[in-house]
Amino acid sequence: MGKKHLNRGIISREAGDHRKAHQYAIPNPSSMHDWSQGGNNAHIHLSIRFLQHDHECFSDWGKADMKAFWYFQSKLHKFTWQQAYDTSRKTDKSGLGYTKISRNNYPDSEFKKSLGDEVELFELRVDHTKRVHGFRIRSIFYLCWLDKGHKICA
Q: What pTM did the predictor assign?
C-alpha cells in the first residue's frame, strides 16, 4: 500500500505557510469584548447553543441555502442591536427584517415551555424566503429555530 494518504490532512498546507498566515488571523480577544455587553449599541453576536434541530436542521439546507446563511451570519456581526431594530418595518421589509413573533407560532416543545415569559422571540431575515428565529440576551442572538421556507409564520 502506498503512503500518499499520509500527505493528506484536515488542515491545508497553505494554512501552515507563514506567508499566508495573515489571511487566517484570529482576532485579538480584546477586540471581541462587546459580546457580553448589553444595550442597543452592542454589536450582535450569534450563538446556536439552543438550536432546535428536531424542528429543522442545517442538514435540511442545500449548498445555496448555507451560502446565504453564512453571508447573513457575517453581515449580522456588523450590526448593532439598534440597527437591527431599525430594520423592523411593516411595509418595507429590508435588511434583517427584525420582527417579533408570538410564542404560539413556534412548535410545542419542552424547550419552548422552559423559556420565561420575559424572553421575547423574534425572527431575522436570512434572505427573501429563509428566516431564523430566536431571542436576545445582552448582545447575543440565540438562534433557536431555522425556517428555510418561512413556514413558522405562514
A: 0.77
Domain that holds residue 96: 32-147
Count how many Cα atoms sit within 13 Å of the Cα of residue 89 in the half-sphere of its side chain.
9
Residue 20 lies in a domain: no
Q: Residue ranges of the alpha helices (H) in the chain?
A: 13-16, 63-76, 81-86, 110-114
8 A C-beta contact, residue 43 and residue 78: yes
Residue 45 placed within a domain: yes
Task: Residue 39: give its domain's CATH number.
Answer: 3.30.2310.20
Q: Is residue 16 part of a domain?
A: no
Note the pLDDT tens digit of each residue in 33-89: 565 677 899 999 999 999 999 999 999 999 999 999 999 999 999 999 999 999 887
Whether 128 and 117 have beta carbons less than 8 Å apart is answered as no
> Structurally, how many domains does the chain consist of?
1
User: Integer distance in angstroms from the first to the last C-alpha of the chain?
Assistant: 57
What integer pLDDT is reported at residue 20 of this predicted model? 52
The one-letter amino acid code at 107 reads P
